[in-house]
Amino acid sequence: MSDTHTPDTTFAALGVREPLVKALADKGITSPFPIQVDTLPDTLSGRDVLGRGKTGSGKTLAFSIPMVSRLAGELSGGKRRPGRPVGLILAPTRELATQITAALEPLAAAYDLRVTTIFGGVSQNRQVSALKAGVDIVVACPGRLEDLMKQKFVSLDAVEITVLDEADHMADLGFLPVVTRILTATPQHGQRLLFSATLDNGVDKLVKRFLKNEVLHSVDEANSPVAAMTHHVFDVDGVESKRKLVERLASGTGRRILFMRTKHQARKLARQLTEAGIPSVDLHGNLSQAARDRNLASFSAGEARVLVATDVAARGVHVDDVQLVVHVDPPAEHKAYLHRSGRTARAGSAGDVVTVVLPEQRKDLAVLMRKAAIKVTPLRSTADSAHVLDLVGDIAPHVTPAPKAAAPASNGGGRNQRPGGAQGGRGGQGGRAHGQGGGARRSRSGGAGRPRAASSTGGGTRTASAAGSRRRQG
């Protein structure tokens, strides 16, 4: 079954209430996707559901619609109470939690339901204030949520519907013990919906323990590639040839996401592309939440055409009309390849995926592509190859980068100054695994510490640190 709209079926025919149909139509969504067609009759009737759908399949609405519909209907409990939500959605990363909230809020507004988002890496004060004011639905990352539970700011004893999204990714991040404790704190009679691409790494144990008489709905095989993607493998002769090719791939007019293995390399490439006249921003785990939000907003608005990211962005970041995903560094395993690639060709749209391969990487990539069930013939490539120029299309106008701000003098013991740019802060997991909430943590670097070179990425400036300076780790 392909991930395209199903024009012969309407949301109303599936039992979706009229206010929600209108809210969806106001967002330009008039036809359901296959996973929504398959799951909505069961989820709207209160059944537990195990949904298996590949990235970009439309599963966010598959659980958001029944949650709002049932909480506004047969499960409505009158006046909302401080710190006692009736709906709970768990997501592995704060990016995904934010994306879910953005999709959920227009539906919740149709019934005056209040939604709040909880994740680590930022102060908890606003989240606590929202809970105290009363919320209906909480979208949360496990670590911070458990922290707030321990502090008695939130209780899950009134939760009627619980959703686990990207459960396999939670397992990969080590969150299953935290998730288990959270689910245990919800009422046994509540409805539970679990969405996961695979059932390995302990996800099957969650299903057996917490889902009751669940209905399995699977759209395409787990970890299967999206049909609307066109995959390319570009072989290069060496590092310099790769650098020129990546710059050419980034130079087109449409949005591009470039994936790197490390935070340092993502930051470096974003700076290099910006200096070459291609406005770029980075996204990785060392950015504060404010910096991540700012960089994503710049990319979404088109101010930056290129997002250079580590795997923190491989799930949950949905920006419309990403034309090209480039694996500048091939990922370590096939699931990461598919999730990275899923940033394009989402929900029926088309897109291209390029993997750039050095000679020493060719053997490992061949194994990875075989596991991902992708058949593609590698092409020897340079920045001027005809097939590369054809893929890139029109070249975007050169944008002169803003001049770098002068680095202020350091007194040898002060904190790094990072005005406006990527700021320190652990990210991606919305809290630490095994119940540790995300929060600020500082480390001291001694005289042997490596100073940071000044760089400009995503509109900000990083200045060199003195040997004995402190730097924020998040």
TrEMBL record:
<feature type="domain" description="Helicase ATP-binding">
    <location>
        <begin position="40"/>
        <end position="217"/>
    </location>
</feature>
<comment type="similarity">
    <text>Belongs to the DEAD box helicase family.</text>
</comment>
<dbReference type="InterPro" id="IPR014014">
    <property type="entry name" value="RNA_helicase_DEAD_Q_motif"/>
</dbReference>
<protein>
    <submittedName>
        <fullName>DEAD/DEAH box helicase</fullName>
        <ecNumber>3.6.4.-</ecNumber>
    </submittedName>
</protein>
<dbReference type="Pfam" id="PF00270">
    <property type="entry name" value="DEAD"/>
</dbReference>
<dbReference type="InterPro" id="IPR044742">
    <property type="entry name" value="DEAD/DEAH_RhlB"/>
</dbReference>
<dbReference type="GO" id="GO:0004386">
    <property type="term" value="F:helicase activity"/>
</dbReference>
<dbReference type="GO" id="GO:0016787">
    <property type="term" value="F:hydrolase activity"/>
</dbReference>
<feature type="compositionally biased region" description="Gly residues">
    <location>
        <begin position="411"/>
        <end position="440"/>
    </location>
</feature>
<dbReference type="Pfam" id="PF00271">
    <property type="entry name" value="Helicase_C"/>
</dbReference>
<feature type="domain" description="Helicase C-terminal">
    <location>
        <begin position="241"/>
        <end position="396"/>
    </location>
</feature>
<dbReference type="InterPro" id="IPR050079">
    <property type="entry name" value="DEAD_box_RNA_helicase"/>
</dbReference>
<keyword id="KW-0547">Nucleotide-binding</keyword>
<dbReference type="InterPro" id="IPR027417">
    <property type="entry name" value="P-loop_NTPase"/>
</dbReference>
<keyword id="KW-0347">Helicase</keyword>
<keyword id="KW-0378">Hydrolase</keyword>
<feature type="domain" description="DEAD-box RNA helicase Q">
    <location>
        <begin position="9"/>
        <end position="37"/>
    </location>
</feature>
<dbReference type="InterPro" id="IPR011545">
    <property type="entry name" value="DEAD/DEAH_box_helicase_dom"/>
</dbReference>
<dbReference type="InterPro" id="IPR001650">
    <property type="entry name" value="Helicase_C-like"/>
</dbReference>
<keyword id="KW-0067">ATP-binding</keyword>
<feature type="region of interest" description="Disordered">
    <location>
        <begin position="400"/>
        <end position="474"/>
    </location>
</feature>
<feature type="compositionally biased region" description="Low complexity">
    <location>
        <begin position="450"/>
        <end position="468"/>
    </location>
</feature>
<dbReference type="InterPro" id="IPR014001">
    <property type="entry name" value="Helicase_ATP-bd"/>
</dbReference>
<feature type="short sequence motif" description="Q motif">
    <location>
        <begin position="9"/>
        <end position="37"/>
    </location>
</feature>
